[in-house]
Amino acid sequence: MPKTLLVFLFSKTIDTYVNVIAYACDQLEVTRIKFVHVLGTKPALSKPDAKDISEKICCQIESLSKGNYIVDFETGSKNAIKLYSSLGSTTMSGVKKLNVYNQVYKQLRILPLEPEFLSYSNLRQDLQSILKKCGGSRECIVDITAASKVLSIDIFSICLALGVPSVFTFELKKPANKQHPEESLYHSLEPESYSYTHISESPPIKTSQSTLFRKEQLLWFVVAASLLLMTVSLYIYFSSGTQSMFLQVVNLLAAVIGIVAPLFSLFGKDS
Fold it and tell me: pTM, whole model, 2 decimals?
């Protein structure tokens, strides 16, 4: 099943999306790309703005596939920078990475350019619907690079709940080169100059998930023990009556478990 990259559109910085898409296609075996925007957030893009961004992303990638970088979308290719000449005498790795844009552009030409729109008030259900269309949560890679911090948390939390294992964000280690923006694109970047973080696999997230899992195990143990004692208590009650010493012991144990259960919960939070 082909991997689908879901790119959330929020920023108007086109190069950010170009780097995300180029890396994902080059390193993560992505073969399909879908643009997504959440309506009803602050700040938010209008539908026309989101469509305009998706078109500019495709336009820039098309230009890059021909060896040109568009500086100004108003003038288009008239003032484009020739990438092969800007690489100068560097190694062939940059030239090879330029071929990634050809690969991406071929995919974009056969895919719908218009973004899918999700409602913030119905974000979980809308995202679940898109994941289903794309083959399921495990066949999708979600990129939240351009999302605001608050919305990133919302999207990531929903992805965890929906069982999406691959949530990523792209980050340049240094500010983008404003004088020569083409030098901050994927083909010009050395591996140590950027990171594409698999958020779900980051140490803090894995530690939190492990803690929650341990807490869940403890709570399930308490529930199972309570049900077992209740069953035994009912059996003794109907067979021996309320005066049975064993029944009294069982009831005492049930009371102890009732007292200890909150402590298990606290232990789960602190561990």
Answer: 0.73
